[in-house]
């Protein structure tokens, strides 16, 4: 048995690469939508591990799935397949537009696979000149060199050497700009049905349908990045289902594993056939532990009671936030879908999302930012109503202190 070493927040600055700035407490235990830190202080969690903990902390069904699989088989690599991966893939196909699945470990890896597949498809059906990927400004698709290049936020891609070629950006929800950019060179358009990191901005009515039509016109693939919006987050299993528009490729991660690292790229037979043996891979992708947990997440989330419950909780949170805004004019509006919500700061409070986040933490409430002007909420899909009400009360106290 290894010795239990005492560590604290100061140790982060001593031992970790300084690319993060974590808050000043360390959580050590979670149960449902509550967390406890090293000092035993309790918090209500509306951050959800950045839209990851779809079923909260320490969900008994996920503990059971993980521990049962842990006693059987952890890893075999992709020179073999395994039962949990095949079951999960089959269930994802049954529940979506897809015919084929590729498993990875993170949203960035799923998007990397999607972008590589799109270029491979175009190369093989039309030749090397059809290689342009069009994405949206303020989009976010991951932190690999390819995915930050496709993502429309230069702050994440600058300073890492020459940018990848064949990538362009147009404003989100701007069809005219997209059509002006498209050509025979376009191999794919990638869109988040709800921009998450960019400020929790939903696609405008009819936008996704029009993008689909443009992709068909120019024989380009439509990729939906549902890393943040997928797996029940919006009240449907995937956000594209609200629009009736089917992509050619969809990426899923975050909530898919309920906290266990796993991601999936879903696609059609037509496109999947261009990833032949040896064209792409992942050592850990589709490992039995991740797939067993994700299968249980899918079984629980993809049910009428959970998905309808997301919409009910959405109403409670939106109404509560707007009621708070009547008293403390910090928020100008609330946007988003299901339990991916953005409270947009009013003009006088622009740029102060971090201060609000810190004040909330002091009141025992964990929330997120989506840029400096938006407070983002992405709680458990099954957060109890009592926790929602108490969270709103704690937010009111935090704002009362800030407003003075």
Automatic annotation (TrEMBL):
Family from the record: Belongs to the class-III pyridoxal-phosphate-dependent aminotransferase family. ArgD subfamily.
Entry keyword annotation includes Secreted: no
PANTHER family: AMINOTRANSFERASE CLASS III (PTHR11986), SUCCINYLORNITHINE TRANSAMINASE (PTHR11986:SF113)
Further remarks about this protein from its record: May also have succinyldiaminopimelate aminotransferase activity, thus carrying out the corresponding step in lysine biosynthesis.
Subcellular location: Cytoplasm
PROSITE patterns to which the protein is assigned, alphabetical: AA_TRANSFER_CLASS_3 (PS00600)
Known EC number: 2.6.1.11
Classification via InterPro entries: Ac/SucOrn_transaminase_bac, AcOrn/SuccOrn_fam, Aminotrans_3, Aminotrans_3_PPA_site, Class-III_PLP-dep_AT, PyrdxlP-dep_Trfase, PyrdxlP-dep_Trfase_major, PyrdxlP-dep_Trfase_small
Protein name: Acetylornithine aminotransferase
Subunit structure: Homodimer.
SUPFAM superfamilies linked: PLP-dependent transferases (SSF53383)
Keywords: Amino-acid biosynthesis, Aminotransferase, Arginine biosynthesis, Cytoplasm, Pyridoxal phosphate, Transferase
Any one cellular-component term (Gene Ontology): cytoplasm
Keyword NAD: no
Molecular function terms from GO: identical protein binding; N2-acetyl-L-ornithine:2-oxoglutarate 5-aminotransferase activity; pyridoxal phosphate binding
Binding site for pyridoxal 5'-phosphate: 107-108, 140, 225-228, 283
Reaction(s) catalysed by this chain's protein: N(2)-acetyl-L-ornithine + 2-oxoglutarate = N-acetyl-L-glutamate 5-semialdehyde + L-glutamate
UniProt record, GO biological process: L-arginine biosynthetic process
Residue positions where N6-(pyridoxal phosphate)lysine is found in the record: 254
